[in-house]
Amino acid sequence: MKKRECILGTKIRPGAINSRTTIRELVDDAFCSFNSARLREACGLLTRKMLEPDVTVGLSMTGALTPAGLGMSAVIPLIENGFVDWIISTGANLYHDIHYAIGFDLHAGSPFMDDRRLREEKIIRIYDILFDYDVLLSTDDFVYQVIKGEEFQAPMSTAEFHYRLGKYVREREKLLGLTRVSLLSAAYTAGVPIYTSSPGDSSIGMNVARAALSGGGPRLDVALDVNETAAIVLDAKKNGKSAVWILGGGSPKNFLLQTEPYIQEILGIEEEGHDYFLQITDARPDTGGLSGATPSEAVSWGKIDPQRLPDAVVCYVDVTIALPIITAYAFATHPPRDQKRLYDRREELVRRLAQYNPS
């Protein structure tokens, strides 16, 4: 490339930040380089492309986001305003989400406390978040009593399980006079399906296992999860575009992305991959783990449309920093979208998917 072709970017000359600086001005003007620039690109990708009406946005969540309050501050507003259409989460995020809805508090603490003393005092620590051990026991009891109900004694996808559970979480919220504290409740109200890629890997899963010991409780169907999520993506691609928004990495990231290899490799449907890729992570790509795998690597698997690779952004930033900024920017620059209520369409979409099965 010639010198003139190399130096075509915007000049780095931000204005001074002052008391009148808005979130939009801060991101667009002061986030000039390194990961602040990637965060600016993420804000632009979300608001200028991913939130178009014909785009279906799938969000994956790992890490202790709900205990840190990000369910209330960011994810619930995103759900309510139609910015997130379906979710894959760790079970832990959903379990800790329930604490707030049934009337318990988590507290800011320190990561440098004596954990032996905390164990003696029956206090649980998630890095710098503290709460009483009884919060776990009470949440376990709530979940266990709910899933003993007749409507849970059947095979179901994790989306159906979380939707039914969310109904009871919502009722407890209302009974306690609480509003907008639980993403399970918000997703139930908005018809946003929530899947868990590893349903046994959480306290919710352990309570399901306890019920199974007595021959009861829900029988979570992981094959149905695979089919429902792939059906959502295929419908999105047939009628518009599909966007993946990845908070962290881990199993939820792969479960979100594997929808395309399932469509292409297993079902033999001609497809090119997801259209938009946005990830917030602190994982390195050179260790070979999925959490740090880049969107260009995902192209080789058919997970991301190679023609859309320029519409892929990875921010190496703590999610607890990036998510509030991106959320605030989205609300400052984009109007609410209509809710797609994909939960209500699951069976219809799976029937359509089955029509493509060559067997």
SSE diagram, text form:
Layout: H1 3-6, H2 23-30, H3 34-50, E1 55-61, H4 70-80, E2 86-89, H5 91-101, E3 107-108, H6 115-120, E4 123-126, E5 129-132, H7 133-147, E6 155-156, H8 158-176, H9 183-190, E7 194-195, H10 203-213, E8 219-220, H11 222-239, E9 241-247, H12 250-257, H13 259-266, E10 276-280, H14 295-300, E11 312-315, H15 319-333, H16 346-354
Parallel strand pairs: 1-2, 1-9, 2-7, 6-8, 9-10, 10-11
Antiparallel strand pairs: 3-5, 4-5
Helix pairs in contact: 3-15, 4-9, 4-15, 7-10, 8-9, 11-13, 11-16
Defining key terms:
single chain, 359 residues, alpha/beta, Deoxyhypusine Synthase, 6-stranded parallel β-sheet, 11 strands, globular
Instruction: Please identify which CATH superfamily of the domain at 33-102 and 157-201 and 220-354 we are dealing with.
Output: Deoxyhypusine synthase
The biggest beta sheet reads: 6 strands, parallel
Examine the coordinates and then state which fold CATH places here, giving the name of the CATH topology of the domain at 33-102 and 157-201 and 220-354: Deoxyhypusine Synthase
CATH architecture of the domain at 33-102 and 157-201 and 220-354: 3-Layer(aba) Sandwich
Distance between the termini: 52 Å
Shape: globular
Q: How much strand?
A: 5-15%
Count, helices: 16
Question: Strand-and-helix sequence, N→C?
Answer: HHHEHEHEHEEHEHHEHEHEHHEHEHH
* SS-based class: alpha/beta
Computed Rg: 21 Å
Give average pLDDT, whole number. 94
Tell me the helix content.
40-55%
What spatial order of strands do you see in the largest sheet? 7-2-1-9-10-11
Number of strands: 11
CATH class of the domain at 33-102 and 157-201 and 220-354: Alpha Beta
